[in-house]
Amino acid sequence: MNANTSAAVAADSGLHWQEGFSRLGDAFFTRLSPRPLPSPYWVGTSRAMARELGLSDEWVASQEALEAFTGNIPLAGSDPLASVYSGHQFGVWAGQLGDGRAILLGETDKGQEIQLKGAGLTPYSRMGDGRAVLRSSIREFLCSEAMHALGVPTSRALCVTGSNAPVRRETMETAAVVTRVAPSFVRFGHFEHFAYSGQHDELRKLADYVIDRYYPECRNATTLAGNPYANLLQAVSARTARLMAHWQAVGFCHGVMNTDNMSILGLTIDYGPFQFLDGFNPAHICNHSDTQGRYAYNRQPNIAYWNLFCLGQALLPLISPAAESGNGEQEFDQELALAALEPYKTQFPEALENAMRAKLGLVDSRPEDRELIESALKLLASEQADYTIFWRRLSHHIAGTPDRAAAEPVRDILLDRPTLDDWLQRFDVRVGADRAETGRRMLAANPKFVLRNHLGEEVIQAAKLGDFSPLQALADVLSAPFDEHPAHESWAGFPPEWASTIEISCSS
Ligand code: AMP
Ligand code: MG
Predict the structure, then answer these.
(1) pTM of whole model > 0.90?
(2) Sequence-distant (≥ 6) Cβ neighbours of residue 155 within 8 angstroms
(3) Distance from the CA of 88 to the center of ligand 1, in angstroms?
Protein backbone atom coordinates (compact mmCIF):
# COMPACT_ATOMS: atom_id res chain seq x y z
CA MET A 1 0.00 0.00 0.00
CA ASN A 2 1.31 3.44 -0.85
CA ALA A 3 1.63 5.57 2.27
CA ASN A 4 0.37 8.67 0.47
CA THR A 5 -2.86 7.13 -0.73
CA SER A 6 -3.68 5.28 2.48
CA ALA A 7 -3.93 8.20 4.88
CA ALA A 8 -7.71 8.51 4.77
CA VAL A 9 -8.54 4.89 5.66
CA ALA A 10 -8.77 3.99 9.34
CA ALA A 11 -7.65 0.57 10.52
CA ASP A 12 -10.22 -1.33 12.54
CA SER A 13 -8.16 -3.12 15.18
CA GLY A 14 -11.15 -3.93 17.37
CA LEU A 15 -9.51 -1.89 20.17
CA HIS A 16 -11.81 0.24 22.29
CA TRP A 17 -10.44 3.52 23.54
CA GLN A 18 -11.10 5.68 26.56
CA GLU A 19 -10.10 9.21 27.42
CA GLY A 20 -6.91 9.32 29.47
CA PHE A 21 -3.95 11.66 29.27
CA SER A 22 -5.73 13.66 26.59
CA ARG A 23 -8.27 14.91 29.12
CA LEU A 24 -5.55 17.09 30.65
CA GLY A 25 -5.90 19.62 27.85
CA ASP A 26 -3.85 21.67 25.43
CA ALA A 27 -1.13 22.80 27.84
CA PHE A 28 0.09 19.20 28.02
CA PHE A 29 0.38 18.14 24.41
CA THR A 30 -0.05 18.83 20.71
CA ARG A 31 -2.44 16.73 18.67
CA LEU A 32 -0.87 15.48 15.46
CA SER A 33 -0.70 12.44 13.24
CA PRO A 34 2.23 10.09 12.78
CA ARG A 35 4.13 10.66 9.55
CA PRO A 36 4.08 7.82 7.04
CA LEU A 37 7.03 5.69 6.03
CA PRO A 38 7.28 4.03 2.61
CA SER A 39 6.81 0.28 2.06
CA PRO A 40 6.80 -0.91 5.68
CA TYR A 41 7.66 -4.48 6.64
CA TRP A 42 7.29 -6.52 9.82
CA VAL A 43 10.39 -6.85 11.97
CA GLY A 44 9.03 -8.51 15.12
CA THR A 45 5.80 -8.99 17.07
CA SER A 46 5.11 -9.97 20.67
CA ARG A 47 2.23 -12.42 20.58
CA ALA A 48 1.90 -12.16 24.37
CA MET A 49 1.43 -8.39 24.16
CA ALA A 50 -1.02 -8.74 21.28
CA ARG A 51 -3.12 -11.13 23.36
CA GLU A 52 -3.04 -8.79 26.37
CA LEU A 53 -4.30 -5.97 24.19
CA GLY A 54 -7.06 -8.27 22.95
CA LEU A 55 -5.93 -8.08 19.32
CA SER A 56 -6.78 -11.06 17.15
CA ASP A 57 -3.90 -13.10 15.75
CA GLU A 58 -5.29 -12.60 12.29
CA TRP A 59 -5.53 -8.83 12.50
CA VAL A 60 -2.11 -8.43 14.12
CA ALA A 61 -0.53 -10.18 11.14
CA SER A 62 -2.50 -8.13 8.58
CA GLN A 63 -1.29 -5.53 6.09
CA GLU A 64 -3.68 -3.09 7.76
CA ALA A 65 -1.98 -3.60 11.13
CA LEU A 66 1.42 -3.17 9.51
CA GLU A 67 0.37 0.16 8.01
CA ALA A 68 -1.28 1.28 11.25
CA PHE A 69 1.69 0.48 13.50
CA THR A 70 4.02 2.23 11.08
CA GLY A 71 1.85 5.31 11.36
CA ASN A 72 0.66 5.21 7.75
CA ILE A 73 -3.04 4.87 8.52
CA PRO A 74 -4.82 5.87 11.72
CA LEU A 75 -6.14 3.28 14.15
CA ALA A 76 -9.91 3.77 14.27
CA GLY A 77 -10.84 5.63 17.45
CA SER A 78 -7.31 6.78 18.28
CA ASP A 79 -6.55 10.46 18.94
CA PRO A 80 -2.79 10.85 18.51
CA LEU A 81 -0.74 13.43 20.37
CA ALA A 82 2.79 14.27 21.46
CA SER A 83 3.26 15.45 25.05
CA VAL A 84 5.54 18.15 26.40
CA TYR A 85 7.96 17.56 29.24
CA SER A 86 11.32 18.85 30.43
CA GLY A 87 14.10 17.30 32.43
CA HIS A 88 17.57 17.07 33.87
CA GLN A 89 19.97 15.34 31.51
CA PHE A 90 23.30 14.12 32.91
CA GLY A 91 22.71 16.22 36.00
CA VAL A 92 22.03 19.47 34.17
CA TRP A 93 18.70 21.21 33.63
CA ALA A 94 17.95 20.71 29.93
CA GLY A 95 14.79 22.81 29.66
CA GLN A 96 11.93 21.79 27.42
CA LEU A 97 12.08 18.39 25.78
CA GLY A 98 8.97 16.37 25.03
CA ASP A 99 7.90 13.50 22.81
CA GLY A 100 10.27 14.29 19.98
CA ARG A 101 9.58 11.10 18.11
CA ALA A 102 7.00 9.22 20.18
CA ILE A 103 3.32 9.69 19.41
CA LEU A 104 0.67 8.56 21.88
CA LEU A 105 -2.22 7.01 19.97
CA GLY A 106 -4.47 6.94 23.01
CA GLU A 107 -5.52 4.71 25.87
CA THR A 108 -7.45 1.46 25.47
CA ASP A 109 -10.43 0.65 27.65
CA LYS A 110 -8.13 -1.68 29.58
CA GLY A 111 -5.96 1.28 30.58
CA GLN A 112 -3.07 0.61 28.19
CA GLU A 113 -1.52 3.63 26.51
CA ILE A 114 -0.20 2.83 23.05
CA GLN A 115 2.69 4.84 21.61
CA LEU A 116 4.47 4.74 18.28
CA LYS A 117 8.16 5.55 18.77
CA GLY A 118 9.93 6.82 15.67
CA ALA A 119 6.72 8.03 14.03
CA GLY A 120 8.02 11.35 12.76
CA LEU A 121 8.56 14.97 13.68
CA THR A 122 6.62 16.64 16.47
CA PRO A 123 6.78 20.19 17.86
CA TYR A 124 9.20 18.75 20.46
CA SER A 125 11.69 17.19 18.05
CA ARG A 126 14.19 20.04 18.52
CA MET A 127 17.21 19.15 16.37
CA GLY A 128 16.07 15.54 15.88
CA ASP A 129 14.41 13.98 12.86
CA GLY A 130 11.56 12.28 14.70
CA ARG A 131 12.81 8.88 13.62
CA ALA A 132 14.27 5.80 15.29
CA VAL A 133 16.67 3.43 13.57
CA LEU A 134 16.20 -0.31 13.14
CA ARG A 135 18.93 -1.44 15.57
CA SER A 136 17.74 0.61 18.54
CA SER A 137 14.10 -0.26 17.83
CA ILE A 138 14.93 -3.96 17.87
CA ARG A 139 16.81 -3.49 21.15
CA GLU A 140 13.86 -1.67 22.75
CA PHE A 141 11.40 -4.28 21.52
CA LEU A 142 13.45 -7.24 22.74
CA CYS A 143 14.37 -5.72 26.07
CA SER A 144 10.87 -4.52 26.98
CA GLU A 145 9.46 -7.99 26.56
CA ALA A 146 12.50 -9.66 28.14
CA MET A 147 12.27 -7.46 31.24
CA HIS A 148 8.57 -8.22 31.56
CA ALA A 149 9.31 -11.94 31.44
CA LEU A 150 11.97 -11.44 34.13
CA GLY A 151 9.34 -9.83 36.35
CA VAL A 152 10.85 -6.33 36.13
CA PRO A 153 8.33 -3.46 35.91
CA THR A 154 8.59 -2.08 32.37
CA SER A 155 6.83 -0.58 29.41
CA ARG A 156 5.97 -3.33 26.92
CA ALA A 157 6.38 -3.60 23.18
CA LEU A 158 3.83 -4.97 20.73
CA CYS A 159 5.85 -4.86 17.55
CA VAL A 160 8.54 -3.28 15.43
CA THR A 161 8.01 -2.38 11.81
CA GLY A 162 10.74 -1.22 9.47
CA SER A 163 11.08 0.79 6.29
CA ASN A 164 14.00 1.32 3.98
CA ALA A 165 13.62 5.08 4.39
CA PRO A 166 17.14 6.35 5.16
CA VAL A 167 17.92 7.84 8.57
CA ARG A 168 21.18 9.62 9.21
CA ARG A 169 23.08 8.80 12.38
CA GLU A 170 26.88 8.26 12.45
CA THR A 171 26.26 6.35 9.25
CA MET A 172 23.17 6.03 7.06
CA GLU A 173 20.70 3.60 8.59
CA THR A 174 17.05 2.76 8.03
CA ALA A 175 13.88 3.72 9.89
CA ALA A 176 11.77 1.62 12.23
CA VAL A 177 8.81 2.19 14.53
CA VAL A 178 8.29 0.48 17.90
CA THR A 179 4.75 0.17 19.18
CA ARG A 180 5.09 0.37 22.93
CA VAL A 181 2.53 -0.02 25.68
CA ALA A 182 2.31 1.12 29.32
CA PRO A 183 -0.44 2.20 31.70
CA SER A 184 1.13 5.66 31.48
CA PHE A 185 4.19 7.23 29.91
CA VAL A 186 4.17 10.17 32.34
CA ARG A 187 7.71 10.96 33.47
CA PHE A 188 9.28 12.90 36.33
CA GLY A 189 10.09 15.43 33.61
CA HIS A 190 6.42 16.16 32.99
CA PHE A 191 6.17 17.53 36.53
CA GLU A 192 9.45 19.41 36.21
CA HIS A 193 8.14 21.06 33.06
CA PHE A 194 5.17 22.69 34.75
CA ALA A 195 7.06 23.51 37.94
CA TYR A 196 10.00 25.20 36.23
CA SER A 197 7.78 27.19 33.90
CA GLY A 198 5.71 28.41 36.84
CA GLN A 199 2.50 26.77 35.55
CA HIS A 200 1.34 25.67 38.98
CA ASP A 201 -2.32 25.14 38.04
CA GLU A 202 -1.23 22.70 35.34
CA LEU A 203 1.21 21.11 37.78
CA ARG A 204 -1.67 20.46 40.17
CA LYS A 205 -3.87 19.18 37.36
CA LEU A 206 -1.20 16.69 36.31
CA ALA A 207 -0.57 15.55 39.89
CA ASP A 208 -4.31 15.15 40.51
CA TYR A 209 -4.63 13.13 37.30
CA VAL A 210 -1.77 10.83 38.28
CA ILE A 211 -3.09 10.41 41.83
CA ASP A 212 -6.67 9.72 40.75
CA ARG A 213 -5.66 7.29 38.02
CA TYR A 214 -2.67 5.49 39.48
CA TYR A 215 -2.22 6.35 43.16
CA PRO A 216 -5.76 6.79 44.57
CA GLU A 217 -4.55 5.75 48.04
CA CYS A 218 -2.62 9.05 48.23
CA ARG A 219 -5.75 11.18 48.05
CA ASN A 220 -6.95 10.59 51.60
CA ALA A 221 -3.74 9.36 53.19
CA THR A 222 -3.24 10.62 56.72
CA THR A 223 0.57 10.36 56.61
CA LEU A 224 2.79 13.35 55.72
CA ALA A 225 0.37 15.89 57.14
CA GLY A 226 -2.38 14.44 54.95
CA ASN A 227 -0.82 16.10 51.89
CA PRO A 228 -1.74 14.00 48.82
CA TYR A 229 1.21 15.30 46.79
CA ALA A 230 3.75 14.45 49.47
CA ASN A 231 2.16 11.02 49.65
CA LEU A 232 2.44 10.75 45.87
CA LEU A 233 6.15 11.54 46.12
CA GLN A 234 6.54 8.89 48.80
CA ALA A 235 4.63 6.30 46.77
CA VAL A 236 6.66 7.01 43.62
CA SER A 237 9.84 6.70 45.71
CA ALA A 238 8.72 3.31 47.01
CA ARG A 239 8.04 2.04 43.49
CA THR A 240 11.35 3.44 42.27
CA ALA A 241 13.18 1.72 45.14
CA ARG A 242 11.64 -1.59 44.07
CA LEU A 243 12.56 -0.93 40.44
CA MET A 244 16.18 -0.22 41.35
CA ALA A 245 16.32 -3.44 43.37
CA HIS A 246 15.08 -5.35 40.32
CA TRP A 247 17.66 -3.71 38.06
CA GLN A 248 20.56 -4.33 40.40
CA ALA A 249 19.57 -7.92 41.12
CA VAL A 250 19.20 -8.88 37.47
CA GLY A 251 22.35 -6.98 36.49
CA PHE A 252 20.66 -4.38 34.31
CA CYS A 253 22.19 -1.00 33.46
CA HIS A 254 19.76 1.55 32.01
CA GLY A 255 22.41 3.89 30.69
CA VAL A 256 20.44 7.18 30.51
CA MET A 257 18.72 7.79 33.84
CA ASN A 258 17.80 11.37 33.02
CA THR A 259 14.69 12.64 34.81
CA ASP A 260 12.80 12.62 31.52
CA ASN A 261 13.44 8.86 31.32
CA MET A 262 12.04 8.15 34.80
CA SER A 263 8.53 6.74 34.87
CA ILE A 264 6.07 8.11 37.43
CA LEU A 265 4.83 4.51 37.76
CA GLY A 266 8.27 3.09 38.55
CA LEU A 267 8.55 1.30 35.21
CA THR A 268 11.66 0.82 33.12
CA ILE A 269 11.13 3.13 30.13
CA ASP A 270 13.07 4.56 27.19
CA TYR A 271 15.45 1.76 26.38
CA GLY A 272 18.53 3.24 24.77
CA PRO A 273 22.13 2.23 25.49
CA PHE A 274 21.08 -0.27 28.20
CA GLN A 275 23.04 -3.43 28.94
CA PHE A 276 22.81 -6.59 30.98
CA LEU A 277 26.14 -7.13 32.70
CA ASP A 278 28.31 -9.86 31.31
CA GLY A 279 31.17 -9.96 33.83
CA PHE A 280 30.22 -8.49 37.21
CA ASN A 281 31.93 -5.12 37.19
CA PRO A 282 30.01 -2.88 39.59
CA ALA A 283 31.47 0.26 38.03
CA HIS A 284 30.43 -0.78 34.53
CA ILE A 285 29.33 2.06 32.23
CA CYS A 286 27.12 0.81 29.41
CA ASN A 287 26.54 4.13 27.63
CA HIS A 288 29.46 5.09 25.43
CA SER A 289 28.32 8.74 25.61
CA ASP A 290 28.49 8.71 29.45
CA THR A 291 32.12 9.73 29.76
CA GLN A 292 31.89 10.51 33.49
CA GLY A 293 30.15 7.25 34.41
CA ARG A 294 27.25 9.11 35.96
CA TYR A 295 24.96 6.21 35.12
CA ALA A 296 27.36 3.37 35.96
CA TYR A 297 25.66 0.19 37.23
CA ASN A 298 26.53 0.74 40.88
CA ARG A 299 25.40 4.37 40.81
CA GLN A 300 21.87 3.66 39.62
CA PRO A 301 20.22 3.49 43.07
CA ASN A 302 21.74 6.84 44.11
CA ILE A 303 20.91 8.45 40.79
CA ALA A 304 17.33 7.30 41.23
CA TYR A 305 17.30 9.12 44.57
CA TRP A 306 18.77 12.22 42.90
CA ASN A 307 15.99 12.03 40.32
CA LEU A 308 13.37 11.59 43.03
CA PHE A 309 14.77 14.70 44.68
CA CYS A 310 14.16 16.55 41.38
CA LEU A 311 10.60 15.25 41.39
CA GLY A 312 10.27 16.46 44.97
CA GLN A 313 11.52 19.91 43.95
CA ALA A 314 8.96 19.98 41.17
CA LEU A 315 6.14 19.01 43.53
CA LEU A 316 7.13 21.57 46.19
CA PRO A 317 4.56 24.17 45.09
CA LEU A 318 1.88 21.56 45.84
CA ILE A 319 3.47 20.14 48.96
CA SER A 320 4.40 23.29 50.85
CA PRO A 321 2.75 26.65 51.06
CA ALA A 322 4.94 29.31 49.48
CA ALA A 323 6.43 32.12 51.48
CA GLU A 324 7.81 35.34 50.02
CA SER A 325 11.57 35.56 50.41
CA GLY A 326 13.26 38.89 50.99
CA ASN A 327 13.94 39.40 47.27
CA GLY A 328 10.34 38.81 46.21
CA GLU A 329 10.82 35.20 45.08
CA GLN A 330 8.74 32.34 46.36
CA GLU A 331 10.39 30.00 48.82
CA PHE A 332 9.09 26.60 49.72
CA ASP A 333 9.60 24.68 52.89
CA GLN A 334 11.29 21.42 51.89
CA GLU A 335 10.67 19.55 55.12
CA LEU A 336 7.62 17.56 54.05
CA ALA A 337 9.11 16.65 50.66
CA LEU A 338 12.31 15.46 52.32
CA ALA A 339 10.27 13.41 54.77
CA ALA A 340 8.50 11.81 51.79
CA LEU A 341 11.83 10.88 50.24
CA GLU A 342 13.40 9.57 53.43
CA PRO A 343 11.96 6.01 53.29
CA TYR A 344 13.79 5.40 50.00
CA LYS A 345 17.03 5.15 51.95
CA THR A 346 15.82 2.05 53.76
CA GLN A 347 13.35 0.73 51.18
CA PHE A 348 15.96 0.33 48.46
CA PRO A 349 18.46 -1.76 50.51
CA GLU A 350 15.60 -3.83 51.91
CA ALA A 351 14.15 -4.45 48.45
CA LEU A 352 17.59 -5.32 47.11
CA GLU A 353 18.24 -7.74 49.95
CA ASN A 354 14.89 -9.40 49.29
CA ALA A 355 15.65 -9.66 45.58
CA MET A 356 19.08 -11.17 46.27
CA ARG A 357 17.62 -13.52 48.85
CA ALA A 358 15.20 -14.70 46.16
CA LYS A 359 18.20 -15.40 43.91
CA LEU A 360 19.58 -17.53 46.72
CA GLY A 361 16.25 -19.35 46.93
CA LEU A 362 15.78 -18.30 50.54
CA VAL A 363 12.28 -17.68 51.79
CA ASP A 364 12.97 -16.55 55.34
CA SER A 365 15.29 -13.75 56.34
CA ARG A 366 18.21 -14.26 58.70
CA PRO A 367 20.78 -11.79 60.02
CA GLU A 368 23.66 -13.55 58.28
CA ASP A 369 22.04 -13.23 54.83
CA ARG A 370 23.35 -9.76 54.11
CA GLU A 371 26.94 -10.86 54.62
CA LEU A 372 26.36 -13.97 52.52
CA ILE A 373 25.05 -11.85 49.65
CA GLU A 374 27.74 -9.21 49.96
CA SER A 375 30.58 -11.73 50.04
CA ALA A 376 29.25 -13.47 46.89
CA LEU A 377 29.09 -10.14 45.05
CA LYS A 378 32.55 -9.18 46.30
CA LEU A 379 33.97 -12.43 44.99
CA LEU A 380 32.24 -12.02 41.62
CA ALA A 381 33.48 -8.44 41.38
CA SER A 382 37.07 -9.38 42.26
CA GLU A 383 37.26 -11.49 39.09
CA GLN A 384 34.48 -9.85 37.08
CA ALA A 385 32.97 -13.30 36.81
CA ASP A 386 29.95 -13.72 34.57
CA TYR A 387 26.96 -12.55 36.58
CA THR A 388 24.13 -14.50 34.91
CA ILE A 389 26.08 -17.72 34.48
CA PHE A 390 27.28 -17.71 38.09
CA TRP A 391 23.75 -17.58 39.50
CA ARG A 392 22.40 -20.09 37.04
CA ARG A 393 25.16 -22.61 37.69
CA LEU A 394 24.80 -22.11 41.42
CA SER A 395 21.07 -22.82 41.05
CA HIS A 396 21.76 -26.09 39.23
CA HIS A 397 24.36 -27.00 41.84
CA ILE A 398 21.88 -26.56 44.68
CA ALA A 399 19.12 -28.30 42.75
CA GLY A 400 21.44 -31.26 42.07
CA THR A 401 23.50 -33.55 44.24
CA PRO A 402 25.38 -32.00 47.17
CA ASP A 403 28.85 -33.30 46.32
CA ARG A 404 32.02 -31.55 45.36
CA ALA A 405 31.88 -32.71 41.72
CA ALA A 406 28.47 -31.12 41.26
CA ALA A 407 29.99 -27.81 42.28
CA GLU A 408 32.57 -27.95 39.49
CA PRO A 409 30.59 -25.85 36.98
CA VAL A 410 30.40 -23.07 39.57
CA ARG A 411 34.05 -23.50 40.55
CA ASP A 412 35.04 -23.29 36.86
CA ILE A 413 33.90 -19.67 36.74
CA LEU A 414 36.22 -18.44 39.49
CA LEU A 415 39.94 -18.61 40.10
CA ASP A 416 39.83 -17.94 43.82
CA ARG A 417 38.66 -21.45 44.73
CA PRO A 418 39.43 -21.25 48.47
CA THR A 419 37.17 -18.23 48.88
CA LEU A 420 34.48 -19.77 46.70
CA ASP A 421 34.61 -23.12 48.51
CA ASP A 422 34.33 -21.36 51.83
CA TRP A 423 31.35 -19.42 50.54
CA LEU A 424 29.69 -22.53 49.10
CA GLN A 425 30.09 -24.26 52.44
CA ARG A 426 28.46 -21.38 54.28
CA PHE A 427 25.65 -21.32 51.74
CA ASP A 428 25.17 -25.09 52.13
CA VAL A 429 24.75 -24.62 55.87
CA ARG A 430 22.29 -21.79 55.31
CA VAL A 431 20.24 -23.89 52.87
CA GLY A 432 20.22 -26.89 55.21
CA ALA A 433 17.90 -29.78 54.46
CA ASP A 434 15.70 -27.77 52.12
CA ARG A 435 18.15 -28.24 49.24
CA ALA A 436 16.02 -29.53 46.37
CA GLU A 437 13.25 -26.99 47.00
CA THR A 438 15.78 -24.17 47.32
CA GLY A 439 17.36 -25.24 44.04
CA ARG A 440 13.98 -25.22 42.33
CA ARG A 441 13.28 -21.73 43.64
CA MET A 442 16.70 -20.58 42.46
CA LEU A 443 16.11 -21.92 38.95
CA ALA A 444 12.90 -19.90 38.86
CA ALA A 445 14.66 -16.75 40.09
CA ASN A 446 17.95 -16.82 38.15
CA PRO A 447 17.41 -16.56 34.40
CA LYS A 448 19.31 -18.74 31.98
CA PHE A 449 18.86 -16.13 29.26
CA VAL A 450 19.22 -12.35 29.38
CA LEU A 451 19.46 -9.96 26.45
CA ARG A 452 23.22 -9.63 26.37
CA ASN A 453 24.55 -6.99 23.98
CA HIS A 454 26.09 -9.52 21.63
CA LEU A 455 22.81 -11.46 21.30
CA GLY A 456 21.03 -8.27 20.35
CA GLU A 457 23.83 -7.51 17.92
CA GLU A 458 23.58 -10.93 16.25
CA VAL A 459 19.85 -10.66 15.54
CA ILE A 460 20.20 -7.02 14.46
CA GLN A 461 22.82 -7.99 11.88
CA ALA A 462 20.49 -10.69 10.53
CA ALA A 463 17.56 -8.26 10.50
CA LYS A 464 19.59 -5.72 8.55
CA LEU A 465 20.00 -8.42 5.89
CA GLY A 466 16.26 -9.04 5.89
CA ASP A 467 16.24 -12.19 8.05
CA PHE A 468 13.96 -11.66 11.04
CA SER A 469 13.76 -15.29 12.17
CA PRO A 470 16.71 -15.09 14.64
CA LEU A 471 15.08 -12.02 16.18
CA GLN A 472 11.75 -13.79 16.63
CA ALA A 473 13.50 -16.89 18.02
CA LEU A 474 15.43 -14.78 20.52
CA ALA A 475 12.23 -12.95 21.50
CA ASP A 476 10.56 -16.32 22.13
CA VAL A 477 13.45 -17.58 24.29
CA LEU A 478 13.57 -14.32 26.27
CA SER A 479 9.83 -14.56 26.89
CA ALA A 480 10.56 -17.66 29.02
CA PRO A 481 14.05 -16.87 30.36
CA PHE A 482 13.97 -19.39 33.23
CA ASP A 483 13.31 -22.36 30.93
CA GLU A 484 16.14 -24.46 29.52
CA HIS A 485 15.52 -24.11 25.74
CA PRO A 486 18.15 -26.75 24.85
CA ALA A 487 18.04 -25.79 21.17
CA HIS A 488 19.44 -22.36 22.07
CA GLU A 489 22.23 -23.33 24.45
CA SER A 490 24.68 -20.96 22.74
CA TRP A 491 22.56 -17.95 23.79
CA ALA A 492 23.18 -18.92 27.42
CA GLY A 493 26.95 -19.14 27.05
CA PHE A 494 29.76 -16.73 27.85
CA PRO A 495 29.92 -13.71 25.59
CA PRO A 496 32.39 -13.94 22.71
CA GLU A 497 35.56 -11.84 22.70
CA TRP A 498 34.00 -9.26 20.39
CA ALA A 499 31.15 -8.56 22.83
CA SER A 500 33.40 -6.25 24.86
CA THR A 501 34.09 -4.15 21.77
CA ILE A 502 30.41 -3.32 21.18
CA GLU A 503 29.86 0.38 21.73
CA ILE A 504 26.33 1.52 22.41
CA SER A 505 25.77 5.25 22.69
CA CYS A 506 22.80 7.61 22.96
CA SER A 507 22.61 7.56 19.15
CA SER A 508 19.38 5.80 18.31
P1 AMP B 1 16.35 10.11 25.10
O2 AMP B 1 17.52 10.44 25.97
O3 AMP B 1 16.65 9.15 23.99
O4 AMP B 1 15.21 9.61 25.94
O5 AMP B 1 15.87 11.43 24.36
C6 AMP B 1 15.86 12.70 24.95
C7 AMP B 1 14.94 13.63 24.21
O8 AMP B 1 15.33 13.77 22.85
C9 AMP B 1 13.49 13.19 24.18
O10 AMP B 1 12.70 14.32 24.34
C11 AMP B 1 13.34 12.58 22.81
O12 AMP B 1 12.02 12.66 22.36
C13 AMP B 1 14.28 13.42 21.99
N14 AMP B 1 14.82 12.71 20.84
C15 AMP B 1 15.74 11.72 20.83
N16 AMP B 1 15.99 11.32 19.58
C17 AMP B 1 15.21 12.06 18.75
C18 AMP B 1 15.01 12.11 17.35
N19 AMP B 1 15.68 11.33 16.50
N20 AMP B 1 14.13 13.01 16.87
C21 AMP B 1 13.45 13.81 17.69
N22 AMP B 1 13.60 13.82 19.02
C23 AMP B 1 14.46 12.94 19.55
MG1 MG C 1 13.69 9.66 26.67
Answers:
(1) yes
(2) 144, 180, 181, 182, 185, 263, 267, 268, 269
(3) 13
